């Protein structure tokens, strides 16, 4: 009886290490909200990128240390909603959209609602969807598009109010991309624990060097290209694009996979 009681208490515990990274990401997202309210837009944008790093680490740390839990998954989703849903929406609103009135806050709301729906859909597809791809733009990448744009604009002394309509269009479009059916590479097939050759390490070092030269510009361009890659991948995969391939409940995935399989077999025949 005593062992059973101790086992029950143990199961109710919370793994510390992965949840520390999740808490750090939540703190960064909350700080981004406060900083944007105080018109410290560059610090807010950087805080969102810090939250992205923490979000990328918590899941990998949990898998590497075998400390996954249902609590950690739910906590991570709540933190993501703050860091990649509320924080970018409020940052965009405070930087450029406030003067647009209803149009401004509606654009910010479209982004925020898109992030919530994207996270909810992702949670319901765990273990079912193709791990090689995300269905819709991932919320951290969407947040990076918004944060990168504002960080770059702030560095070049660009007043968000001067481009409020462009900022509103980017914000709303990014929100819609999150709930779209466009497929984005997830890069989850990479074996982070596997061995690589020396050239791969040099490449990683080179990436860090390039990003450090102009972090705002490089990160902004990189995530814009990633956001565009989804429509490109989807259009290339299906021969005849339909509305169901862009919006819907995900039933088109079978057709996409079938089209991709046909394309792969054709390529293998052309290149024996």
TrEMBL record:
Q: What is its EC number?
A: 2.7.8.8
- Annotated organism of origin: Shewanella decolorationis
Q: Where is this gene product found?
A: Endomembrane system
Cited NCBIfam families: pssA
UniProt name for this protein = CDP-diacylglycerol--serine O-phosphatidyltransferase
Keywords of the record, alphabetical order, are: Lipid biosynthesis, Lipid metabolism, Membrane, Phospholipid biosynthesis, Phospholipid metabolism, Transferase, Transmembrane, Transmembrane helix
| Topology within the bilayer | Multi-pass membrane protein
A single GO BP: phospholipid biosynthetic process
């Amino acid at each position: 009886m005593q062992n059973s009681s101790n086992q029950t208490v143990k199961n109710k515990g919370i793994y510390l290490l992965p949840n520390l990274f999740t808490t750090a990401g939540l703190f960064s997202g909350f700080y981004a909200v406060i900083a944007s309210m105080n018109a410290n837009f560059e610090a807010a944008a950087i805080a969102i990128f810090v939250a992205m790093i923490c979000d990328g680490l918590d899941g990998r740390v949990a898998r590497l240390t075998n400390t996954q839990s249902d609590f950690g998954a739910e906590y991570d989703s709540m933190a993501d909603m703050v860091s990649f849903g509320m924080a970018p929406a409020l940052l965009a609103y405070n930087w450029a959209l406030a003067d647009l009135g209803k149009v401004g806050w509606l654009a910010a709301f479209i982004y925020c609602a898109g992030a919530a729906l994207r996270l909810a859909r992702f949670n319901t597809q765990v273990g079912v969807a193709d791990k090689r791809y995300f269905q819709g733009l991932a919320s951290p990448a969407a947040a990076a598009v918004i944060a990168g744009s504002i960080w770059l604009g702030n560095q070049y002394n660009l007043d968000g109010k001067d481009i409020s309509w462009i900022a509103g269009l980017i914000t709303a479009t990014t929100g819609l991309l999150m709930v779209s059916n466009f497929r984005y590479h997830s890069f989850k097939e990479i074996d982070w624990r596997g061995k690589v050759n020396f050239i791969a390490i040099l490449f990683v070092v080179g990436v860090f060097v390039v990003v450090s030269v102009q972090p705002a510009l490089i990160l902004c361009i990189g995530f814009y290209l990633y956001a565009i890659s989804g429509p490109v991948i989807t259009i290339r995969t299906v021969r005849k694009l339909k509305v169901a391939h862009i919006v819907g409940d995900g039933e088109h995935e079978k057709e996409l996979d079938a089209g991709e399989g046909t394309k792969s077999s054709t390529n293998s025949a052309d290149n024996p």
